[in-house]
Amino acid sequence: MRAIGLVLHPRRDCVPVIETITSWARARQTDVFGLAGEVVRANGLVKPVTEDELPERADLIVSLGGDGTMLRAFRIGNRIPVLGVNLGRLGFLAEVDVPELGSALNAIDDHRFTVETRSALCATMGEQDIVAFNDIALVRVPGFGMTEVMLHVEGHPFVEYAADAVVVATPTGSTAYNFAAGGPIVSPRAEGLLVTPAAPHSAFNRALFLSTTEKLALEVMDGSGEVALEADGRLMGKVQPGAMIDLTALPGAARVVRLGRTTFYQRTQRKFRLIGSATSEDFICD
């Protein structure tokens, strides 16, 4: 491995972990790069580069933080493999905790790992393209009424939602806003897009799972209130009634390092504490 790139959580103290990485790298004559605006916290241990330069220099990107930091590493990484190191709350994307980092780097250096691809989602509105790895959401702006959206499939109107938000999620994003809105958990190996209304006020209030090969668009209806467009929780702008947003899946847009230590379902069990969940027998009255 010639070089490692770092993406840091914006607030958590990453210096002890950076010291572990740079110590490992020095012993193998491996360079360590980081984003110029972030590595000022690294006490001079990391070489600063721009967002464009990081994927050009690095063979591996190490994300130090949680799922939000991983999503940012995906956006920056341009399909460079990303190793997620969990700092703080347990997430779905990180592969190792801090005590396991040294052995993880050894395994990657020895090519004892696999790469799991993740799809992204592109929202096109006019000349603007917005890419997300979890979800694109049309969210009601407080004080402006409900979000009213017509879902078009293969060029034809299919169903109209009136809701606080309409969420279009990748399988990766099925455990994020989609899940909070009542949508299902989907395997990251699945190829498709979820459409889920949040707090729906319409007769049809169910989530849909569509193929990545099907043409999908969202039309903001004339009777809708003002709508905010969010990508992975980031506000991208406001959308006015009458706007049409085309949505396209981008298969293989990100690559996640996996060491075979846990599965997606084991991480989901831990996150939601599903082991030992209540069963119907727990509610039987004697």
TrEMBL record:
Active-site positions on this chain: D67
UniProt cross-references to Gene3D superfamilies, sorted A to Z: Probable inorganic polyphosphate/atp-NAD kinase, domain 1, Probable inorganic polyphosphate/atp-NAD kinase, domain 2
Keyword Lipoprotein annotated: no
InterPro entries: ATP-NAD_kinase_N, ATP-NAD_kinase_PpnK-typ_C, NAD/diacylglycerol_kinase_sf, NADK
Top-level taxon of origin: Bacteria
Pfam families registered for this protein in UniProt: NAD_kinase, NAD_kinase_C
EC number: 2.7.1.23
Co-factor(s): a divalent metal cation
GO cellular component terms given for this protein: cytoplasm
PANTHER family referenced in this protein's UniProt entry, alphabetically: NAD KINASE (PTHR20275)
Function text: Involved in the regulation of the intracellular balance of NAD and NADP, and is a key enzyme in the biosynthesis of NADP. Catalyzes specifically the phosphorylation on 2'-hydroxyl of the adenosine moiety of NAD to yield NADP.
UniProt record similarity statement: Belongs to the NAD kinase family.
Protein name, per record: NAD kinase
Upper lineage: Bacteria, Bacillati, Actinomycetota, Actinomycetes, Pseudonocardiales
Gene expressing this chain: nadK
